[in-house]
Amino acid sequence: MNSDFELANKRVVIASNRLPINVSSKQGLLNITPSVGGLATGLSSFHQGNEGLWVGWPGMNPGNAEKKQELEKTLHDKYNCFPVYLTSTDLKKYYQGFSNRTLWPLFHYFSTYTIYDSSEWSVYKKVNQMFCDRLLEVTRPGDIIWIHDYHLLLLPQMLRREIPDATIGFFLHIPFPSMEIFRYLPWREEILEGILGADLIGFHTYDYTRHFLSCTLRILGKEQVYGQLTVDNRTVKVDTFPMGIDARRFSAAASSPDVINERKLLGKRLKTEKIILSVDRLDFTKGIPERLKAFERFLDKYTQWHGKITYVMLCVPSRTKVREYQLLKSEIDELVGKINGRFDTPGWLPILYMYRSLPFKQLVSLYSSADLALVTPLRDGMNLVAKEFIASQVNNPVGALVLSETAGAASELGEAIIVNPNDINMMAEAIAEGLSVSGEDKKSWIESMSKRIEKYDIFKWTEDFLNQLCQVKDRQELNRQFFLSDKKQSEMHSDYENAGKRLLLLDYDGTLVPLAGKPEQAKPDSEIYDLLSMLTKNPKNTVVVISGRDCNTLSEWLGGTGVNMVAEHGTWIRETGKPEWQLTSGDLTAEWKENIYPLLEMFSVRTPGSFIEEKSYALVWHYRKAEPELGNLRSKELADALHDMVSGTGLQVLRGRKVVEVKPAGVNKGKATLQWLEKYDDWDFILAAGDDWTDEDIFSVLPDWAWSIKVGFGPFTRARFVLDSTNKARRVLQSLGNIGTQ
Ligand code: ADQ
């Protein structure tokens, strides 16, 4: 499927907390500067080359309507941006509060820093709604809406409610934590449902993707198939997109005359043999105190480097109004003072600490002058600094990179010197290694990493994400064609009405009644009882409930409705009006059960919540009530073990919805269906409905013209049509039943 053409015709509207520019006011005049931070620097390059829009907080709230208008005009005309204005309370509770005191620490595994405050949550919801309202104003049909990051986790669902067929992508720039951490959130369901409003959900690494899918399964009970989930009637895709940078911009700048000049000035000013560099936003996730301690340990041990190196530590101020950040700033100031105080000599200062943002050229001059970069966050979604440093290595000799294993970038930049950022000794040794490594080694490491960074740059990353988003929309469109539309239903009605001999083959669990935790809880309610009775009363109808259930249960539950019944996936049959159940095959045995039972028992003991159901000619292991991931894993193990045991015995192992079943191989719902089909050769209406893999056997033996319906949405089926719930299946049957009575 190629979606390039479609993409080329679409406008991309980005929504993120901050616009890529920051507006402030100096003596009544607007001052506009680029925003700092991974998302803004990364996506700005894309935005500048695209006709699209960007919606977000501009960094200030102009006092009066006239100034607002002036700012909006400038933002729109010069930058294609639309502001969302936040009040000081919004900023306090939504931004400093829920975003940065709840989500940011929790998602970076700092659960002890995490504050749970319901008033902050309320404002978070309100601000997400403000973004939604703004997007509704500025978007037009056909736009691609691309929502970014943890500040706007509820926005995809809010927009989906307003524009059900919108194309919505969501990308998270920070880690998605494991289920064990995420479950701490009191609003975990709302957050997951909020994100699932998107059509495509992207993360930097496979681990984050895996964690998200594990949370949607364990918290919302949503099963995934190849990273695809079904939300209402929509297919939602979850995938990994490691974010790139505008690599050429960095390499070109590093060789430009301006930067060469900057480098010379820097060399003169620093007068040092080697430069060690770190560049971070000042944030507790970046591991700055740990890194300073490692640098101190290095100076203690490797005295031969005294006087020959300078550690340039560049920190950009961030979230300065949040208390934890203020405390961290004091801690860093003290550590720098202590280390410089311990080791400095006249003419040598070990650490040059800059607490500010630097213009692009100066930043690149630092990157390209450094002999060693220290990128050692305690946790980081990706970390673009590591990539920017590598892209700027145009000089000879090139620099070395020490990189934390807990930065998303580590999964792509394996040639770096990888460290555990909590291990001070390991980091001190890595600094020593990075300074001494041969030029040749460094060159080959940097070359390999540069190639990767150039290949998957920000443009490729964006294209990849947006193309996949269009493909998901194409797939949704394709799936929609299989939905039993109103038009198709009217066709079905007239087929039914004109038919003299109708066969209705209906599965029970998951088709007529919703799946229940325990088999005995899925008793027919009065509606289904009345519905079946109504259908069977019509003399033109032959109604067959064809189920995996045992004979007793079916007799007890459905005996009074007048339906024909097929039990145990086709092992037994009981025709309407006949008192006895008949075996469909003469050569069935049950002795094998005593050999298989102990294995199922062992799995039941090891899997809390699972249990065994014994039927006359089948054994079933149920795990619907088990913890979903454990249940899935155990079911695969059990099916493997059973396959080995039953090979050559005439038995078959079936993996159905939350069950593993062993039964005679020659028996299945398809064979039972054939018996009904062959009863008459002049059926002129056939309808079959089922939800499970076992029902695919029914669909596969039906004539092409039969109305076959898969209940519940799944990626693969042989049925011609799909209905998304038992409720809808009932409504369809009800409408047929009504025809007969009119
Ligand atoms: P950040 O946490 O902001 O981003 P990072 O990816 O390192 O982290 O990006 C920082 C950006 O700010 C870089 O582009 C860098 O050049 C710039 N920068 C830092 N200090 C600077 C300074 N003093 N002067 C000028 N520029 C400076 C979040 C996530 C990351 C993820 C990105 C992108 O936390 O894990 O990589 O988004 O998804």
Polypeptide structure, described:
- This protein is of the alpha/beta class and 742 residues long.
- It has 4 domains: 238 residues, Glycogen Phosphorylase B (Rossmann fold), CATH 3.40.50.2000; 208 residues, 3-Layer(aba) Sandwich (Rossmann fold), CATH 3.40.50; 173 residues, Rossmann fold (3-Layer(aba) Sandwich), CATH 3.40.50; 72 residues, Alpha-Beta Plaits, CATH 3.30.70.1020.
- The chain contains 26 helices and 28 strands.
- Strands 5-4-1-6-7-8-10-9 form an 8-stranded mixed β-sheet, sandwiched between helices. Strands 21-20-19-18-17-26-27-28 form an 8-stranded mixed β-sheet, sandwiched between helices. It has a 6-stranded parallel β-sheet with strand order 13-12-11-14-15-16, sandwiched between helices.
- Strand 18, helix 21 and strand 19 form a beta-alpha-beta unit.
- Helix 20 packs parallel to helix 26 and helix 22 runs antiparallel to helix 23.
- The chain is elongated, with a radius of gyration of 32 Å.
- It starts with a helix and ends with a helix.
- The structure holds adenosine-5'-diphosphate-glucose (ADQ).
Helix and strand arrangement:
Blueprint: H1 4-8, E1 12-18, E2 21-26, E3 29-34, H2 38-48, E4 53-57, H3 65-79, E5 81-83, H4 88-107, H5 118-138, E6 144-148, H6 155-162, E7 167-171, H7 179-182, H8 188-195, E8 200-203, H9 206-220, E9 228-231, E10 234-240, H10 247-254, H11 257-270, E11 274-281, H12 288-301, E12 309-316, H13 323-343, E13 351-355, H14 360-369, E14 372-375, H15 384-391, E15 400-404, E16 417-419, H16 424-436, H17 439-455, H18 458-482, H19 486-498, E17 502-506, H20 526-537, E18 541-546, H21 551-558, E19 564-567, E20 572-574, E21 582-583, H22 593-606, E22 611-614, E23 619-622, H23 628-646, E24 651-656, E25 659-664, H24 669-679, E26 685-690, H25 693-701, E27 707-711, E28 721-723, H26 726-741
Parallel strand pairs: 1-4, 1-6, 4-5, 6-7, 7-8, 8-10, 11-12, 11-14, 12-13, 14-15, 15-16, 17-18, 17-26, 18-19, 26-27, 27-28
Antiparallel strand pairs: 2-3, 9-10, 19-20, 20-21, 22-23, 23-25, 24-25
